[in-house]
Amino acid sequence: MLDLPFSNERFDVVIEKGTMDVLFVDSGDPWNPQPATISKVMAMLEGVHKVLKPNGIFISITFGQPHFRKPFFHNAKFTWSIEWSTFGDGFHYFFYILRKGRRCFDDEDFIEKIQMPSISLYHEELEGEDYIFLTNIEELNS
Question: Which is an annotated GO molecular function term of this record (predicted)?
């Protein structure tokens, strides 16, 4: 995802599960990631933003808590709004929804926690990708 080979505004939805987590593995202090980590994460997000159509949705499923992801997602280069939810028992996942072209520029600290239906899955079910089909994309557009 660091160099997406697609033209601009190609996709309505982009989903990543764990890619950012991998980029942060050797980042050092999570509050002050190393410059190489910052460059890779920004390259990934810039690529996603580029390939999303206007009003497209980027879904990020990650272990990364909002206070670590917000500085990247909310960079001035991006025009997306940011919403998130937490799911999982004991071991939490974060489900971010970023909507291109809907950023609130009046409040630079704006990030909204959304209320989503509880997803109760066993860890084994999360290992496969079928749980993604439990997400209703049309519901996200409302």
Answer: methyltransferase activity
